[in-house]
Design a protein that fits this description.
Helix content: 25-40%
Largest sheet: 7 strands, mixed
Oligomer: single chain
Number of domains: 1
CATH topology: Spore Coat Polysaccharide Biosynthesis Protein SpsA, Chain A
CATH architecture: Alpha-Beta Complex
Order of helices and strands: EHHEHEHEHEEHEHH
Strand order of the largest sheet: 3-2-1-4-6-5-7
């Protein structure tokens, strides 16, 4: 077993359930097409990580999809909100003995293997690592011991999520490191920054 663990949170690619803000502008089928491209990108990036890998699905675990074929362990997200779902995923990996755990989502088209490698490296001398997203959230979060308080009582749709997280860590005496700031793709204005994705429409 590797001592590093990479967790990937994804939504099952179903029209009407993914990229809903984007779908309001371009329609559900095109939004699904964009999300599938983001999933493909996330799979390529995460596959090269020097870590054991697991993908957490939002609704159900497919029998034999591309993630399983790529060697990812499969699991189902559990919890009433994003904070609880992340807490449960981290807890499960810590119980299994992993020492450094990074969690990423599937909304960032700018993330590359170096960002994940940098995050694992920063955990060598920090307790927490976060990848700031330009919308005020984060595209990556990592830690080396359970800290469920980090994810408690946060309104995840608000623009100050990243600001709150280091404050919570600091109040517990934890040191936080940041990786590069990147953009998530949530709405049409985000999408317009990526011609390769716009060409899919």
């Amino acid at each position: 077993m590797h001592t590093n663990r990479l967790i990937v949170f994804i939504k099952n690619p179903t029209a009407g359930k993914v990229k809903t803000r984007l779908a309001e502008m371009i329609g559900e089928q095109k939004a699904l097409k964009i999300y599938q491209h983001l999933l493909d990108h996330t799979l390529r990036v995460s596959s090269s990580a020097d870590a054991d890998k697991i993908v957490y699905y939002s609704d159900f675990i497919p029998a034999n999809d591309v993630w399983k074929k790529a060697g990812f362990e499969q699991a189902l997200q559990s919890g009433t909100d994003l904070g609880e779902r992340m807490t449960n995923a981290f807890r499960s990996s810590f119980i299994k003995g992993y020492e450094k755990i990074i969690l990423i989502g599937s909304d960032c088209f700018e993330i590359d293997p170096e960002h994940i490698e940098d995050a694992f490296s920063k955990l060598s001398d920090h307790d927490l690592v976060a990848g700031p997203a330009k919308d005020g959230g984060y595209y990556l979060i990592g830690m080396k011991e359970p800290n469920p308080e980090i994810f408690a009582d946060i309104k995840w749709s608000q623009p100050d999520v990243l600001k709150i997280t280091p404050e919570k860590a600091s109040s517990k005496g934890l040191k936080t490191a940041l990786t590069d700031e990147l953009s998530d793709i949530d709405d049409f204005s985000d999408l317009m920054n990526y011609p390769v994705l716009m060409n899919l429409l």
